[in-house]
Each structure stands twice: as structure tokens, then as C-alpha cells.
Here is the input.
Amino acid sequence: MATDHPPLSTGIDPRSGFCAATRTFHSTRSPCNLPPESLPATAASYAFSLLSSPLPDRPALVDSTTGIAVSYPSFLTAVRSLAGGLWSSIGLRPGDVALVVASSKLDVPLLYFALMSIGAVVSPCNPLSTPEEYEHQVKLSRPVVAFAAAEVAAKLSRHVKCVVIGSDKYRRLASDGRQPAPPAVAVKQSDTAAVLYSSGTTGRVKAVEITHRNLIALICTHFNNAEMAQRQAAEAGEEPPPPTVMLVPIPLFHVFGFMMVLRSLAMGGTAVLMERFDFIAALRAIERYRVTLLPAAPPLLIAMIKSEEARRRDLSSLLVIGVGGAPLGREVAERFVVVFPNVRIVQGYGLTESSGTVAATLGPEESKAYGSVGKLASGMQAKIVDPSAGEELGPGQRGELWVRGPIVMKGYVGDDEATAATVDSEGWLKTGDLCYFNEDGFLYIVDRLKELIKYKGYQVPPAELEHILQSHPEIADAAVIPYPDEEAGQLPMAFIVRQPGSNLTDQKVMDYVAKQVAPYKKLRRVAFVTAIPKSPAGKILRRELVQQAVSMGASKL
Here is the structure.
């Protein structure tokens, strides 16, 4: 899959990957041998084509709670059978969108692959969302059908045909042998494979359109990285890494979870699924299933550092923790390595709009670059752009990160204006993050130009919460900011200006918001003020409020 590392083009610094003439950073990784773009292929067919023959003799999927395992032959057979039912009984065709609204059950990856294999579009949703949030997502993606867990089916719009996962109707889709296999479908790699939901700075959920080509490039990059790791081990005289057993504590509707399960199944690994995250249950699963890889957000590392239970458990199988979803501080990384010296931290950076990983650390040496999210992935380019002047900057200079490459999204469904504002005519994705590259090509995330609050790896848009707060009759004005927190990363905190004569309390404010949003979006702190600081143009000065919140030590509620 990987090729020998070719010399970089003339004018490109081999250390940083920076080209002074074009003011562009280039990946210094070995290039991937992607299939020709003209070749019809789905992400599912490409993933299956990479599996060894005979198929891996280890489980493809395991339910961490029940221990139920699905072998690779069983998984492939079930995907083909379900694909036939989706085509014949549901009538799905290439381009049709299907919502998948469920926790991380064994059925979910099966559905993802079956849908993609016939050219239908997978659209995963958070099962904890509110009916209002689902309604907005439905308006964006216009699904033909929804596959939902029984406990959330009632929250979906009545206008969408719904099949309850696990019901008799659902089981018949996969088990009715009388249904013919779906016909061979020529799906273009440029066709849409998935629609994932990402909140923008406006606070409105956006539907991110990911193509089969995006996912194929992502899979190819992971194969590149795995081969590099094997070569490094061989050169060092070490045993090759064992087959990957990955615990997946991250929801499969999130781009991080979606990407990691796709990666695992394409590479013949075992994915151990957690339907609901529980820290102690995660430790037990690592011990029971001899987990080697744990993708996680920074709060999980903090919990492991502080946990006596983590020290008591046999976690000796764990070799790598892949950190994503939020920046990992140098101090936390250093503390983790002291407690767990045999576990390597792999840091990465990506967005829903980039289908996943833009940059990552590879190998033991790169992993020591604490605070960095690594080097650009194979095939990727980047620019650091001065947000005010628009000037393209060099190594060591801070600006907004722009990226371009085969994993960048097709666009936002039904929102041409937002697409044009985010991806320019040359294919550069503006990430909204303040970053810099050092002289060795390592990427560092300094701050978020975007105003999203990162709560335990989730994105919480302040504008959405402000809109809800401002609809309260006793609230004159409101602003929501990220309040720093060691365990969660950031907490959503509101500054409230009461209406004259109002006796509104902290708890009433939080209860009002909690009824209208998913649990991770709830307010965690509230402070009452006489005015919200704003710029002359009326923009909320959030940085001033963050400083005020830290100095006043607002009480946790």
C-alpha cells in the first residue's frame, strides 16, 4: 500500500514540508496508492477488498457488555444479506439518505456497511438529541428512511419512514433468504457516502457531505501508517505489532468513532463496542478483551491518571491511546506517561469536514512531541493564514489553519453559502483553528478561532444556547462561553442579564436549557451580570467574559 518515501519537490523543505514559493506546507509522509478516481467503488467495497484471504480468524466486532462476537465471515455475509433487504424490501437506491439513530450496538457498523455497499448514504444521528434537533437534521439531509433504536423512534418526525432496529421487520431485512442480492451498482467515488452533522460558529447544525473517495483516502492513510509502524519495528529489531483490538468508547455517530470503526474493519482488527461509556466498564473491557488500542478524548486520560481502579486492573495489553476530539495538554500527557510508561500516546487532529485525521503523530519518537497533534497525513497540504491580513505565514508563525487534500468534504448539504465560506474555489478548507507548524513540520493547535465549546470531545455551539436563553421571558441578554475545566476540557457557562424585576435563579436557567438540548449541551455554570461586553459591531467579547469567569471563580452548579 505504501510506497518508498520519494524526494519532495524542489523548493520544499524536507524537514517542515514548507514551500516558500507557494507558502504551503506539504505532507512529508509516504504517498498512498489510491485507486484511480474514475474507477467505480464504494468505501465498503474498498474496505472489504483489503481484507486478507482467507479472512481474519479473529472477531470483527465484539459487544463489550455481553461478550457476543461477530466473526469476519459472519460480518460480510450479514452485510450482503442486509444490503439485499435494503434494496428489495425498503427500496433504497444509490443517493438515498438513511438516518441511523442508535447507540453503539453491533447492528450499527453492519448498517453502515450495508447502506454504503449499495450506494445509499449513511447519516448517523445522536440518539440523545431532542425532537427539535432531529427535525432540523431531517430538513437538511431529507432521508428516505430512518433506522432507530426503539427508545428514540418516537422522537423522530412522523414524515420519515422508521424501521426499529431489532424489530421483526428489521430482522426480516437481513434474514429473509427469498430476497435477491442487490444488483451490482456502479457507484462513483465522488458520490456521497455519508452525511455527518457538525455545528458551525453560527450555532446551526450543518450536514457535512462525505464522499466514498474521502473515506477510501482515509482508509488508505491508515494502511500507510500501519505499514510504517511495521517497518519501524523491523528496523529496530522488534516483534511486529499484534493484531489490533480496539475498544471504541466514542459514539459511532461522531466522526471520530465512525472513522475508527471503518479503519478497524478495513484493516482486519477487532472493534470492541461500548453501547454507553462507563469508565469502570471501559477498564474491565480493556482487561477482559486484551485491548491494544484505545481511541479517547483527553478527559479519559485524566480519569486514568487519577484512578486507583486503573492501577489495580491488568491493562498490560494496552499499547496505544489515540487522542482526538480536543487538544491534549503537555502536562496531562507527561503525567499519563509517568503512570502508564508502556502506553504510547498518539495525538491526532481532524474535523468532521475533513472526514477525520488531518495530522497525527506516528511512532515512538513523534509521540514524544507532547502538545503537538503530529505531522500532516499523507496527501495533505496546509496553509497558515493571518486571519486579519489574509497573508500566508511560514513555520513558527500563528494563524488560521487551512487544509487541502483527498479527505476534505464535498460540502454542506443544502447550504451553498456556508460551503463557499468554508471551502474556497481551490479546495482549501478553512478550519477556524489558530495553529502553527514548527521547523520539523509538527502542527500545534493554539486556540480555536471558532467559538465552539469542546465539552468532553463534543462540540457545543454557544450561539445555539444563547438563542434558547434569549427566548426566556425573564432574560434580557445572554452570552455563553467556554469555562476551562481539567476533566471536561471546557464547560458551557452562561452570563445572564435579567429583565428588570426578575428573580430568575441559576437552577431555573439551567433547567430551561436542559429541556431543549442534548445532555452534553447543558449549561454547567451560570453568572448574573448587568451587561454583556460587546464590540462596536455588537459582537460578544467572549474572551473578556472567560477572563471574568476565571477571576470570579463562578461556582459549579
In short: Residues 12 and 63 are 47 Å apart (CA to CA). The first helix runs from residue 43 to 49. Confidence is low (pLDDT under 50) at residues 1-6. The radius of gyration is 23 Å.
